[in-house]
Amino acid sequence: MFYHVKELQFNARVSGPDPKFAALLLEQFGGANGELAAAMRYFTQAFSTRKPYPDKYDMLMDIATEEFSHLEIVGATITMLLDGVNGELKNAAEACPLNKLTKGKAGKEEVLHEALTNPLFLIQSGGGPTLTNSQGVPFSGSYIDANGDLTVDLRSDMAAEARAKITYEYLMKFTDDPLVHDSLRFLMTREIAHFQMFGAALDTIQPNFPMGVLQGDPRHTHTYFNLSNGADARGPWNEGQGPWDEGESWEYVKEPLKHVIDTDGEINHEPKGVKTTQEQVAAKNKEMSKKRSEEVKSKTASAPAQWSSYPQDKLESPMRPDTSQV
Ligand SMILES: [Fe+2]
Q: Bias category Basic and acidic residues: which stretches (predicted)?
């Protein structure tokens, strides 16, 4: 159930109209890394999380709802930056009313250019946000990643927060309105906070690597292919222990073509730098399959089922419905 609270989470303010920046800010309204995409991403991911991880369902729904609050702030800011546009558009009898808004002829031309590159904006919305990115491309469900596995989704969410954070950072370079800066700084900072929340939540799921259930084939997990000529960079991504367990290391394949021929296309690749054997992998696959599937099954009430309790005073759901009054 959603409940609209009329106060904005952050006091969005602008010093004056700025239609050009309003158009840029649409990127965070209906763009791939915008607030609606974030809200829908966590909202969608939450459903399959409810049974195995009711605590993460709670977190995902809270953060999704905060992203809706941010969408409201962005929409409000865009509308205030377009303040006057709607009124001027309605002033159909005047020849060049937008001049007043846009500081002379050059300003008006800028707005017209904006309208031509993003025709829905201004012409169709006439003073409010449109559900598009800054180029007028309509919002798309393809922006939403939900893979039904929290060790995957939380990593994807951290990447999404990183992209949203840098988008705000770039946007801040295109306005010098101190009041708009204030709002953007708040929104940017919340992406940092969400990044940390998702990271902390991922840490509570153990083991969480590799993502998903199945282990990697030890013949291929630790291999780095040097697939370019000339000077080569070395670092913990292809040299020494890197991110692997104590006693393990990367196998640097300097001549990949020779390696592929020598190993009969990787089939006869003897694992190097890996301690895990194929037998251990098979055992771990069984153990993880049982663990993950039990996590879901143990929390699942077989049909009939009910999603919520009233009041919802426990995290665990769905549950068996009370059918005594049916
Ligand atoms: Fe966020």
A: 262-273, 284-298
From the CA of 237, how far away is ligand 1's center (Å)? 29
CA distance 48 to 59: 13
Third-level CATH fold of 19-203: Ferritin (1.20.1260)
Q: What is the pTM of this model?
A: 0.88
Can you give the pLDDT at residue 97? 46
Tens of pLDDT, residues 195-233: 999 999 999 999 999 999 999 999 999 999 999 999 999
Between the CA of 39 and the centroid of ligand 1 the distance, in Å, is 8
* Residue 253, beta-bridge partner list: 225
Distance 34 CA to ligand 1 centre (A): 9
The closest alpha carbon to 41, from 167, 205, 157, 194, belongs to 157
* 67 annotated to a ligand binding site: yes
Residues 6+ apart with CB under 8 A from 162: 191, 195
Q: How far is the CA of 68 from the centre of ligand 1 (A)?
A: 10
Average pLDDT taken over every residue of the chain: 89
Q: Is 70 annotated as a binding residue?
A: yes
Burial class (CB in 10 A: 0-12, 13-18, 19+), 217: middle
Which regions of the chain carry the CATH code 1.20.1260.10? Answer: 19-203
